Amino acid sequence: MMKSIHIEKDSTFINELENRLEMNEPISSWELFSMAFHAEKTTMTPSFKGLRALEFLPHVDFLNHQISSAEQVIEQMNGRAILADEVGLGKTIEAGLILKEYMIRGLVNKALILVPASLVNQWEKELNEKFYIPAVAYRKNMSWEQGNIIISSMDTAKRSPHRDTILNLDYDFVLVDEAHKLKNHKTKNFAFVRSLKKKYCLLLTATPVQNQLVEIFNLVSILKPGHLGNYDTFLKSYGKDRKNMKQDMYLKQLVQKVMVRNTRKDTGLNQIKRNIETIWAEFSKEEKEVYESLEDISVYLPSFSKITFLREFCSSREACYLSLKKMLAEQPDLEGFQRITEAIEQLPNHKKAEKAVELIKEIGNEKIIIFTEYRATQLYLQWYLQQNGISSVPFRGGFKRGKKDWMRQLFRDHAQVLIATEAGGEGINLQFCNYMINYDLPWNPMRLEQRIGRIHRYGQNKDVHIYNFALKDTVEEHIMKLLYEKINLFEQVIGHLDDILAELAIPDIEHELQEIYSESTTTGEAKVKLNNLSAIIQQTHDTNYEEEQYYGNT
Amino acid sequence: MAIPDLNNFLKSFFTAHHCSLLLDQDGVLTIQLTEEMDRALMNRPFYWHYMKKMGHSGEPMQLTLITNPNKRDDEGEWIHFGSPRLQQIIGYLQQQEKYTKLFQKVNPTVNTALYPWLVTNIKVSYRGKYKRDELFSIGLNLINGTMKSDMMKILDSIPLHTTISDFCYTLSPLVKLKSGYRRIEAVVDQYIENQNHEWASEALEELQTEIELLKYFYTSDNDNEQMEKEIKEINERYQPRITYQVINGGLFYLTSEIV
Question: Which Pfam families match (chain B) (predicted)?
């Protein structure tokens, strides 16, 4: 046995020690010498088994299935695996944990992380902040050779001249997010990932088999060629029907050796349903007048201001009033605005706020979260709810951790409503609440999903109710009807939206929408453009779906 | 954990580097850095470059480190076993504190001889499907060839100093440093040889299986280059290896009474 083990000894130490003693060079004091020894004892890994990374990440609350998945990938799959958890169970967390463990053990120095363009920054943030992994997003003129942990989009990486540089490098670890894009072995993406020189490799996808069994064959061939036989024999035995997988226990077992899949069912997240309802409100006559005069007058404003004022006014008088005041302070001679701010001051309570109180009373004695985009609205709502005998606490992403925890506790034990301005409340668990009001809709649907994720998550055991507020005959109605409802966002598209937007080269949908409004001279024009955007998104979604149907028939 | 108390560890580290502790309370530590520590930890080479160029002495920063998790929202950095700051400090220790020459501190009334010992702390890493480390601390008396394991533990109870005490003199080694090191290495070799290497057989087995699968996969394919690349990757992943790395070590002059 000893003969087949490569042994590498340390030949430099003793020479260097001899030199130092001869040259009388500075040497360590006992205290520091001994500290270095103890530090090594702390950082070394005394056992083949177990996850050391957990000791190093005391601030992360891992779920049991995430820890066991990471262990399984490292100990049983030897670092090459498909992570195929259902959406929302934390594939990213598992991947980060695995990478961290390999780094702690000194097995990974150089890693390449390939993710959709729209997720590059999110990955960078998560790996750095949650895992203390010094990963950097690839930026122009960066050196692929020098960076150790680089996150890039597949499109950038596979493009010349990056492609050749990358293919020449030896990676200890390669990760591909949204790996179902690799299921077709005839694509460039597939060929590229396959030719990467890599030691460990993780493929992340919520949908490892969408249509045909050969898709899983292709994914496995990247990780462990031959594990499922070769292409021809595989096709012969299993054909193209994915139903065979369920029938063939042997194949199933083979696949389980390279794939980890947790489902909501396993983790107890399954039984919970999402009820989503749109609540329409209508402006009063006075409010409508103000809205219309804003629409008319603000044509002369710099881009984005107009649509911002309109959105704010749909949220609360206060939000709009503050922005108007701020603008007037900078440009006091802007015509007409003085009149509008005066008109706003005269307005009674906002119709949406009245609707909210109505709804809260209807729901009865339940905890409710209200999300709004604006701080002014948050303050106003807090006041207005109080006027109506409803207790509430505020919540902002900017709160310090201690304050966040305190607010959460107040909400749980004393108040009925939590009014939040940001979904980004990382790590705040609100599973004890299952009602949510989206007081104004974010223009980025992914943020909506994050909001919902605050309550529809591990640990929730009641059905979740989501109410989306929108005002008739306003920009809110356009977004609700022409975008959200038209693309069937809540039912089918949301899981794919990232892919679709990347494919359409829309890095930031919120920005896209603002542009539509600022570049349109009339509301009608904006509506037409919005309609077109929805149509393209829907069409891309449908074509992708069809392609999946056809794939493999050639 | 080999560092049982992080707060104490940090205090010793900074005190040993001549930094003063401005605050030490309830797991919150504020340190006035020295220039050396500022250069080592604060990552601002341009500041120091600029200061020196202008003929200024420069002003080292203060650093607040929080080891008490309940205080982690206070002003300062929360430091724990995974935090980049601790890794930086540990990295600095490992890089700086590799070599030493120390003398036992004694108060003799008569002339006392000190025996030279070569002490090495060696990390052995076993890498098959996975990896595990073992740390040996071995001392060798360079006069009579006595060898001790767990040498660091023995040294812990002996007062040591960088200069020799009065009335003491050192004996010259009969065994040269290099051959002494070879003897230590031979002991480690022997230890490894006598072990059960199931981890290696498992890894080799896996290596064989995957290569066979791979060959089967490529029977109808002519892509030899791709296959070679993949064989290399499999080897890279499973080929069992053992590496020796001396973490630190040095020459220790000790009285004859050590156990």
Answer: YqhG (PF11079)
Closest residue on chain B to A225 (Cα): B214
Residues of A in contact with B210 (CB under 8 A): 224, 226
Cα separation of A513 and A445, whole Å? 12
Nearest by CB to residue B204, choosing from A4, A27, A32, is A4
List the single residue in A33, A134, A227 with the smallest CB-CB distance to B100: A33
pLDDT of residue A461: 76
Size of interface A-B (CB pairs under 8 A): 227
Residues A230, B230: C-beta atoms closer than 8 Å: no
Residue A455 has pLDDT above 90, yes or no: no
Residue A304: what pLDDT? 65
What residues in A contact B183, CB-CB < 8 Å?
A: none
C-alpha angle A98-A104-A105 in degrees, rounded to nearest 5: 90
Contact A221, A228 (CB under 8 A): yes
CATH number for the domain harbouring residue A399: 3.40.50.300
ipTM tops 0.90 = yes
Read off the CATH number of the domain in which A148 is found: 3.40.50.10810
Dihedral of alpha carbons A226, A232, A233, A239, sign: positive
Considering the domain architecture, whether residues A224 and A102 belong to the same structural domain is answered as yes
Tens of pLDDT, residue by residue over A106-134, are 888 899 999 988 788 889 989 998 898 98
* Pick from A27, A224, A231: CB nearest B210: A224
In chain B, which residues have their Cβ closer than 8 Å to the Cβ of A9? 185, 243-244
Domain count, chain A: 2
Distance from the Cα of residue A79 to its chain's centroid: 24
> Which strand (E) or helix (H) includes residue A382?
helix A375-387
Q: How much is the average pLDDT of B171-191?
A: 96
